[in-house]
């Protein structure tokens, strides 16, 4: 019965993670459209420190959508391991890319479609090889994990890096380097996932009839979650306002997922209970997702489709009519004749404008 209950929780967490990706992917589009509307109105942009987006209903709709996605994600961490839930955030990238092609006039070419396919395959691989058993099952277990020396060192380094980027690197390079604000969101996100995991366990215990309101750890995790999420929203808004959505979304996914997987390996130690084949499968799936996201966005501005690919292949197969330097020779003769005619026109006293117009007509013909 315990094994059946574990599988039941696993699939509940999987469904919540997928629904979370759908809500979060849509939230990027709504918030971006709201920021674009503010930019057209001439309001101070979020990247410049403005907060006019608080009066835009589209931005609030995006925030509510992200809140619903985060709530589903919150619940997913209570049922499934972080190694499974976090990488499935790639589905939000797919949703964002598809919706961007319809609502933000951003095209989805052949590379993008292949990237979507690879991301889905990578996510499926990670679901198959993800650990289906929880390393911790109560708030007391979470308390023992949080005081582990390895996690304390990791959390200290994360806070130091975040403070350096916020107060030193951000004011100097935040407007020109896309990695600055995304790094802040990603490293803080690793701590927010840990808080979410602990609060999810506390809610499960409360539903089960245990008294958790009087435990200080539950309130510490709640305050930590509020601080982390507020920081993430602030700097993610700045990144979305300054840079293209097609760049922010995949880079944020890779950085955030890498941070969370590192935190999960240190705090929850889920990788210790995975076999070698599952570890290799999980890493391979994650790398496949990264390649898919790269294809989805790196060649986004290149117009490539199956039709244009077939036409280019047919052009390459056509034989050239001239060989052994004949084409170069004929081209030289044509240029030589044109220059000779220009010199004759100049000798006859024709104005330079008429010569230019005639040469332009010849070029067009």
Word description of this protein:
The structure is a single chain. The chain has helices at residues 2-41, 57-79, 82-85, 90-103, 110-129, 139-146, 149-173, 178-207, 216-242, 245-267, 276-298, 306-317, 326-347, 352-364. It has 14 helices and no strands. It has 365 residues and is mostly helical. It is a multi-pass membrane protein. Keywords: Membrane, Transmembrane, Transmembrane helix. This is NIPA magnesium transporter 2. The chain crosses the membrane at residues 12-30, 57-79, 85-105, 151-171, 178-204, 216-235, 247-268, 280-299. It is found in: Membrane.
Structure described in brief:
The protein is mainly alpha-helical. The chain is 78% helix and 0% strand.
Mean pLDDT: 76
Strand count: 0
Strand content: under 5%
Radius of gyration: 28 Å
User: Number of helical runs?
Assistant: 14
Helices and strands: which structural class? mainly alpha
State the separation between the terminal residues, measured CA to CA: 82 Å
Q: Helical amount among residues, as a percent range?
A: over 70%
- Let me know the largest β-sheet: none
H/E element order: HHHHHHHHHHHHHH
Q: Uncertain runs with pLDDT below 50, 5 residues or more?
A: 325-365
> What general outline do the C-alpha atoms trace?
globular
Q: What key phrases describe this protein's structure?
A:
single chain, 365 residues, mainly alpha, 14 helices, 78% helix, disordered C terminus
Task: Tell me the layout of helices and strands.
Blueprint: H1 2-41, H2 57-79, H3 82-85, H4 90-103, H5 110-129, H6 139-146, H7 149-173, H8 178-207, H9 216-242, H10 245-267, H11 276-298, H12 306-317, H13 326-347, H14 352-364
Subcellular location: Membrane
InterPro entries: EmrE-like (IPR037185), Mg_trans_NIPA (IPR008521)
Membrane topology: Multi-pass membrane protein
């Amino acid at each position: 019965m315990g094994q059946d209950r574990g599988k039941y929780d696993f699939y509940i967490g999987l469904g919540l993670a997928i629904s979370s990706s759908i809500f979060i992917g849509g939230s990027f589009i709504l918030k971006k459209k709201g920021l674009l509307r503010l930019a057209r109105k001439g309001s101070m942009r979020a990247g410049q420190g403005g907060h006019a987006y608080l009066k835009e209903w589209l931005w609030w709709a995006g925030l509510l959508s992200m809140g619903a996605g985060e709530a589903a994600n919150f619940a997913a961490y209570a049922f499934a391991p972080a190694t499974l839930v976090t990488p499935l955030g790639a589905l939000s990238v797919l949703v964002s890319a598809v919706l961007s092609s319809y609502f933000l006039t951003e095209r989805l070419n052949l590379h993008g479609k292949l990237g979507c396919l690879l991301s889905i395959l990578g996510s499926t691989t990670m679901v198959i090889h993800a650990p289906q058993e929880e390393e911790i099952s109560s708030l007391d277990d979470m308390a023992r994990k949080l005081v582990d020396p390895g996690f304390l060192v990791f959390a200290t380094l994360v806070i130091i890096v975040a403070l350096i980027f916020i107060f030193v690197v951000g004011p100097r390079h935040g407007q020109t380097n896309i990695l600055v604000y995304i790094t802040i969101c990603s490293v803080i996100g690793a701590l927010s996932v840990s808080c979410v995991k602990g609060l999810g366990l506390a809610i499960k215990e409360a539903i089960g009839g245990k008294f958790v309101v009087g435990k200080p750890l539950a309130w510490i995790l709640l305050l930590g979650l509020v601080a982390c999420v507020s920081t993430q929203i602030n700097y993610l808004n700045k990144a979305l306002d300054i840079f293209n959505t097609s760049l922010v979304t995949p880079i944020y996914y890779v950085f955030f997922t890498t941070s969370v997987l590192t935190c999960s390996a240190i705090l929850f130690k889920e990788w210790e209970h995975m076999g070698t084949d599952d570890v290799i499968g999980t890493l391979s799936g994650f790398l496949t997702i990264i390649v898919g996201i790269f294809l989805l966005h790196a060649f986004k501005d290149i117009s490539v489709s199956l039709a244009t690919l077939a036409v280019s292949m047919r052009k390459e197969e056509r034989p050239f009519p001239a060989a052994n330097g004949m084409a170069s020779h004929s081209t030289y003769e044509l240029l030589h004749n044109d220059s000779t005619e220009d010199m004759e026109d100049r000798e006859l006293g024709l104005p330079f404008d008429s010569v230019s117009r005639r040469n332009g007509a010849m070029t067009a013909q």
